[in-house]
Amino acid sequence: MSESDETSPLSDLTIAVLGGTGPQGRGLARRFATAGLDVVLGSRDASRAASTAETLAAVGRVRGASNAEAAAAGDIVLVVVPWDGHAELLASLVDVLADKVVVDCVNPLGFDKQGAYALPVEQGSATQQAAAILTRSRVVGAFHNVSAVLLEDPEVERVDTDVLVLGDDREATDLVQALADVVPGMRGLFGGRLRNAHQVEAFTANLISVNRRYKAHAGLRVTDV
């Protein structure tokens, strides 16, 4: 379904995607722009973000900028950056992101010959680390378990998966659930408070194992809701 009409709580908001030139960021930007939302891609290299935005121009309103510029422009700011640069980037944007809804989508994962595995995080999870750094922001965790391959594929019209949304701010989690709902086939569901983010982030390692074994792009569905 589309929430991009005048009655949508998202219709007047700009969605920023930090790390928007990577597969997950590009894919989410594609889906939100296709739904009629205003999207700005952020990157360490603003010219690279602008080039990526040009490739998505046909699907909707997408523009490129530096991560700092995108963070300033966004009403809802998604963090889709590599784990090893997560804390450093957020620390540099504390003031810019104050009072904004910040959606952490990062999965702290390692890889070895046995496959993907969850990395320990001092604060408990990437989402909790974001909340510890961005003390003046409204931090939510979401979009951890969605296949970047499906998001990016223009031939895939529906991304049939549930998105677990985690946070301690009811208004912010409701807004991010609505954001997930704009993508056909996708459904945003409240998944618990920030303290429960670790297992949702870590579950991505299990999905990677499923995908490798069955040559699939598996997602998550919650039954009886």
UniProtKB/TrEMBL annotation:
Reply yes or no: does the keyword Oxidoreductase apply.
yes
Q: Which GO terms describe its cellular component?
A: plasma membrane
Q: Which is an annotated GO molecular function term of this record?
A: cupric reductase (NADH) activity
**UniProt entry tagged with the keyword Oxidoreductase:** yes
Keywords, A to Z?
Oxidoreductase
**Could you mention a single GO BP entry for this protein?**
copper ion import
Any one Pfam family match given in the protein's UniProt record, by short name: F420_oxidored
Q: Domain Pyrroline-5-carboxylate reductase catalytic N-terminal: where?
A: 14-108
Query: What is the protein name given in its UniProt record?
Result: NADPH-dependent F420 reductase
Which source organism does the UniProt entry give?
A: Nocardioides oleivorans
Q: What is the lineage of its organism?
A: Bacteria, Bacillati, Actinomycetota, Actinomycetes, Propionibacteriales
